Amino acid sequence: MRIGILGSGQLGFMMILESRNLGYEFATFDIQPGPSRAISDAYFGPGSEKDFVDSCDIVTFEFEHVSETALMLANQEEKLVPGIRSVDLKRDRLREKTFLREGEFPIADFEPAYSAEEALRKSRRFGRSILKMTTGGYDGKGQFRVDWGKSSSYEVPDASYVVEELVDFDHEASLILARDSSGKKVSFEPAINVNHRGILLTSSTPAKDHGMGQIAGKLADRLDYRGVLAVEFFVKDGVPIVNEFAPRVHNSGHHTLHGSSVSQFEQHIRAIAGLPLIKPKLFQPSGIVNIIGREMNDHLRRKILSVEGTRLYWYGKEPRRARKLGHVNIIADTGEELEKKIGAVKDIIYGKNIDDYF
Ligand code: AMP
Fold first, then answer.
1. 69 CB contacts (<8 Å, ≥6 apart)?
2. Fewer C-beta within 10 Å: the chain N or C terminus?
3. Residue 220: phi, psi to the nearest 5?
4. CA-wise closest residue to 252 among 17, 243, 97, 215
């Protein structure tokens, strides 16, 4: 069987690395070659969408913002897993939020707006809010915070927005699950996530569930989902509020490469290929620190790896401010030790000037 992956970034790279041993062939399509090109059995670029889809038995994606043509072709040929619905919802924030609201999932209050003027006007109702562009925004891009208690004038680019109430959460969290074609679901332990300027900085597990597993399960069923699905939450007074979902493997699940009985990457390939799923077991408290906007060098590599239990993943991408360039996986004997190690690795990478890199 040949599995096609749309997108050639680090998520696809880890999918291939983790699932090679299953004996499948992997083909990759991307607009611009990324890290996984070198380890793909075949690589396809712009103009060869049809050849790519035709050459694969099933097609999945590592990211929502991939070639629309290739997605459509894979859907037409009934090869796309997970299905087109989950991607469609993710390509427009308003569609995603409306779907969540109609499904009675717990979410932050929001209003749609079709211009900058309308977005700013509607945001006054919330006092403190986040204006999120409906398309093209991820990792904090295309998002603007407004606080009418602090300033009486704001300027944002003219665009369509989801105007969202600001949640004073206690912490952010995520839950990753896998669902197969029979509807069977298995979940990874929830993770606690810390974002900096809208980008995931650290993540650690295990964490309290607070009902997140049930919410994520209901979402997967509603989407008749197949594959690995990640759901991001705000947790306030022990109550989870869905922020968004990702129909794919997720940055907060990278720790499963070491601390769990199965990685999210192999689990995804199992789910889409129709293989039995593994019930994930967390062997040790595990976490990650993302390397963002910071170039690697020998000194830094040595310092990071001098923290016991760390593994380094460098994606080999062109360094750029606020870009995810790699991550460090960390395991520890206790949750307390894990937090200490995460703090130490974070300090080694960013020192006191984290904003220089974001
Ligand atoms: P998103 O792209 O929607 O995941 O947003 C990126 C990050 O911005 C989140 O992980 C939060 O840290 C923050 N954020 C987004 N929406 C809200 C909200 N309604 N209230 C508070 N923080 C938010």
1. 49
2. N
3. -60, -40
4. 243
Question: CA 8, CA 5: separation in Å to the nearest integer?
Answer: 7
Q: How far is the CA of 39 from the centre of ligand 1 (A)?
A: 34
Ligand 1 centre from 167 Cα, in Å? Answer: 8
Q: For residue 138, what pLDDT is reported?
A: 67
Q: 258 alpha carbon to ligand 1 midpoint, in Å?
A: 28
Which among 96, 300, 316, 348 is positioned nearest to 202, based on CA atoms? Answer: 348
- 127-141 pLDDT, tens per residue? 999 999 999 766 678
User: How do residues 71-114 score in pLDDT, each as one tens digit?
Assistant: 999 999 999 999 999 999 998 999 999 999 999 999 999 999 99
* Ligand 1 atom having least distance to the Cα of 132: 3
CA of 130 to the centre of ligand 1 (A): 8
Cβ–ligand 1 contact at 243 (below 6 Å): yes
Question: Is 244 a pocket residue for ligand 1 (Cβ < 6 Å)?
Answer: yes
Taking alpha carbons only, the member of 117, 154, 112, 118 closest to residue 135 is 112
Q: Strand, helix or coil at 6?
A: strand
Residue ID of nearest Cα to ligand 1 atom 19 = 166
- Global pTM exceeds 0.70: yes
Burial class (CB in 10 A: 0-12, 13-18, 19+), 300: middle
* Closest to 297 measured CA to CA, from 310, 321, 314: 314
- Which domains, and CATH codes, for the chain? 2-80 (3.40.50.20), 109-165 (3.30.1490.20), 171-356 (3.30.470.20)
Q: What does the pLDDT read at residue 136?
A: 75
Q: Does residue 108 line the site of ligand 1, with CB under 6 A?
A: yes
